[in-house]
Backbone:
């Protein structure tokens, strides 16, 4: 199953709402794939706003995760990589209820999650001049 949107920055709230409707559950792991400056953190900001949480959203580049409200978990695996994150206890963190948004989620992480029985969604963001293409799928999109 796949959903695809093209959206400028002002329309990201709609992309968030549609993504949540597509996922349709209160617990989910979302692997966010996208080049530098494609809009991964911006998506997480709008995701947090959707739930009326006023917390400041920053990419957790050096920390392991940020938690907004009681159950939105935000990770960025770019610096540490997948194996380091696993050593730091990623599986235990992912078992916490709520949403887990992972910037720089990749196919390596996707296959490990699948192997260990974690369901995930893939959010792929591509740059298109002054807008972005968002694709959400319940399996890894190649
Ligand atoms: N849908 C969109 N349409 C147009 N511009 C966007 C959209 N989403 C984000 N942007 C812009 O893209 C730029 C990069 O956004 P952001 O920092 O969220 O990217 P990122 O993927 O998290 O970057 P990094 O790879 O550094 O983590 C920002 O200037 C932001 O305003
Ligand atoms: Mg970012």
Residues:
């Amino acid at each position: 199953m796949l959903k695809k949107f093209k959206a400028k920055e002002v329309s990201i709230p709609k992309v968030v709402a549609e993504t949540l409707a597509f996922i349709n559950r209160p617990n989910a792991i979302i692997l966010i794939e996208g080049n530098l400056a494609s809009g991964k953190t911006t998506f997480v900001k709008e995701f947090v706003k959707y739930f009326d949480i006023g917390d400041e959203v920053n990419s957790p580049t050096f920390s392991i995760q940020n938690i907004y409200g009681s159950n939105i978990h935000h990770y960025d695996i770019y610096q540490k990589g997948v194996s380091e994150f696993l050593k730091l206890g990623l599986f235990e963190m992912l078992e916490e209820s709520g949403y887990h948004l992972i910037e720089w989620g990749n196919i390596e992480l996707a296959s490990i999650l699948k192997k260990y029985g974690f369901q995930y969604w893939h959010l792929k963001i591509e740059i298109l001049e002054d807008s972005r293409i968002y694709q959400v799928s319940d399996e890894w999109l190649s």
About this structure: The chain has five helices and seven strands. The first helix runs from residue 12 to 23.
